[in-house]
Structures are given as structure tokens and as C-alpha cells.
Amino acid sequence: MSNINTRLVHGAVDGDPVTGAVNVPIYQTSTYRQPELGRNTGYEYSRTGNPTREALEKQIADLEGGTAGFAFASGMAAIDAVLRLYGSGRTVIISSNVYGGTFRILDKVFSRFGLGYRIVDTADLGAVEKSITPDVSALLIESPANPLMTVTDIAAVSEIARDRGIHTIVDNTFMTPYLQRPIGLGADIVVHSATKYIGGHSDLVAGLAVVNDGELAERLHFVQNATGGILQPFDSFLALRGIKTLGVRMDRHVSNAEQIAEHLQGHPAVSKIYYPGLRTDPGYGVNRKQASAGGGMISFELNEGYDHRAFLSSTELIALAESLGGVESLLCHPASMTHASIPADIRRAVGITDRLIRLSVGIEDGNDIIADLEAAFGRSKLV
């Protein structure tokens, strides 16, 4: 199976060969009967391996073009496990706008154990090269980045990292393997908050990681097994179910996002729009080279003549909520929600202002989403 739409439906593990069930069963068990001492059936304890979770791990590895996949209890659990590959005295470079939780875990948790971080505009390849000192072990990037949709040239950054003997880690949550596959562009590790587009229905919290070689696979499996932040069987089943419809959902997310971005461009209520699917976006060219579309996420700044608090409380169809990537449209205020853990001076320096709004475009009718935005603009306009 070479076409991704077919692979999404049938998966690396297609159903159950024992019963003929077309879906992978939920193996809701903690342990497994062993036929004799020193011999098992391939499974011994579900922290180490579970058939439902294994099917998901094989599926995401196949979709991302990696060697092995790993499923975790949340996206942050996946980030945590990946960062544990690097030791005290080492440094990880992160993009200048990344998810606040990624910044927080480095700034408040790993810093206590001697793993440092350095914030760099990874869209600036010259800045990336200058930032790689002997203590750096990895580059951790998002493209498009959360929340300003900054696009980093994954192939170029991966080449720089490879020449310096360090890893490239790409958070591919916003794009999913349906739109972008970083390992094929040279990345070593890909992570996802599967809570978002992969689950797709706002009913799951999960994380995934994929690596590009056997040595990394052994190291990450050791961390996963030793620390135990694994995804449970039922949640693995939900993620597998979500993947089956990922293609049709992403097509709708993208078409709606393109329609809405075009509508907001030049809108009197909007001073700036961030969407790499727009030809006017500074990242459009690079994004078009490495991804098949601009994705389903849009950020925009309200003009000073509009009250952002009133706007965020005025929508009816679109919910004000944390998270993204579900079938329903969601609004978020990054400065006080997803990126509140980032110090205010850093937020301001990169452009995360109080008037910045992030919109996760759902799969509703695009005209209805636009109508809801227009009504909220009207209610939030200052007299």
C-alpha cells in the first residue's frame, strides 16, 4: 500500500487475524500467561508491550516513514521521554515560538537536572548555525510553530544538525503525517500530541514519537519502559480509530482554513494574520516545499479598535477552549492560555501579544465559522 489514504484506513496492523475483526481489538490486560519459565508469547507486561498499543505504534511509524513508533499518555509525556535521551550538561535548541508546555518542561523540570535550552529563531538558518556550540545535543522545532505559524526549513535545519552530529526533533502536531513527513526531510525524531488531529474528536489525550534508526529506537523504548508513561489500550484504540479518518478530516480542515484566512486577510478587525497557506505569508514558499498544504491552524491579531476579551467571549459556534485539532472549531488566547508559562518579556519579543488569537479551524461549514467570527467582531468593536 503506497497511497497514504489507504494506509490510514488499513494500517500497519490491519484488523485481527484470529477472529477476522476489521478493527484491532482492545487488549485490556496488564499481564500475559507465559507457557513456561523464560519463554513468553511476545508479551509479558503491558507497560513493556501491549498488542493494541503496538498496532498504533507500528501505524504511526509507517505513516511517518520511521523505524519505530512509541505511544505515550500525553504529548508532553512523549516530549519528556525524548528529552530524557540527553544528559546533564547538554543543551537543546528550541524554536523561538513553541508550545508553552515544551518551554515549561525544559525551563522548570529538565533544568533542575542539568539539561539546558537555548531559544533561537530556527527560520533563520544562519542563526541556527551560530547557535550550535559543543554542548548542543539536539534541535527541537515546530513547523509551523505554535502559535505564530513560523515555518522552519526542516530539510535545511536537519542537514545543519547532521553535519554537527546532533539530532533534529520535529513536533509535527499541527501538520500530521498526512500533510508533512519530517523524517523524509532528514529529521531524526518526530513527536505528536495525538490529542489533537490524530485523535481528532476532543475525546483523547495521547502522545506519539517516531525515530529514524534502530539505536534511537532501543534507547527510547528503554525510557518508555523504565518510566512508564505509556498509552492505555482503550486510548490506543481511539487513536487508531482517529487515524482512519485523518485524511478526510484534514482535507476539510485545510479547505475551511484557506477560506477563512482569505476572508480575514485585509479585514478591518485584523491587523495581522499568520497562516502559511497564504501566498503573502513569509513562510509560504518553504512550507509549500515541505508540506502539501498550510494546515488547519490560523492565528491573527485583533486591531486596537477591538476588545480581545469581548471577542473571545462573543462567539457562539466556536468554543473558547484549550487544545486544537478536533472536528469542532476552537479559539485560544495564547498569552493567557497555552503560552502563559513563557515569561511575558519572551512572549512580547517573539510577537505573542494580548491581541493575538489562535483559531483551530474545525470541519463545520466554512461559511458558518465566518459568520460566527463576524458576529464576534461586531460585538467586540470599541465605540
What does this structure look like?
By secondary structure, the chain is an alpha/beta fold. It folds into 2 domains: 4-244, 3-Layer(aba) Sandwich (Aspartate Aminotransferase, domain 2), CATH 3.40.640.10; 247-380, Alpha-Beta Complex (Aspartate Aminotransferase, domain 1). It contains 14 helices and 12 strands. The chain has a 7-stranded mixed beta sheet with strand order 1-7-6-5-4-2-3, with helices on both faces. The protein has a 5-stranded mixed beta sheet with strand order 8-9-12-11-10, covered by helices on one side. Helix 10 (246-264) crosses helix 14. The mean pLDDT is 96.
SSE map:
Elements lengths: L3 H7 L40 H14 L3 E5 L2 H9 L7 E5 L4 H10 L6 E5 L4 H7 L4 E7 L11 H10 L3 E5 L4 H4 L9 E5 L13 E5 L2 H14 L5 H12 L1 H19 L5 E5 L9 H7 L6 E6 L5 H5 L6 E2 L9 E3 L11 H7 L5 E5 L5 H15 L3
Parallel strand pairs: 2-3, 2-4, 4-5, 5-6, 10-11
Antiparallel strand pairs: 1-7, 6-7, 8-9, 9-12, 11-12
Helix pairs in contact: 2-9, 10-14
Main sheet strand line-up = 1-7-6-5-4-2-3
Q: Into which percentage range does the β-strand content fall?
A: 15-25%
The biggest beta sheet reads:
7 strands, mixed
Helix content: 25-40%
Output the radius of gyration.
Answer: 21 Å
CATH superfamily of the largest domain: Type I PLP-dependent aspartate aminotransferase-like (Major domain)
Uncertain runs with pLDDT below 50, 5 residues or more? Answer: none
Structural features:
5-stranded mixed beta sheet; alpha/beta; 383 residues; 7-stranded mixed beta sheet; 12 strands; Aspartate Aminotransferase, domain 2; Aspartate Aminotransferase, domain 1
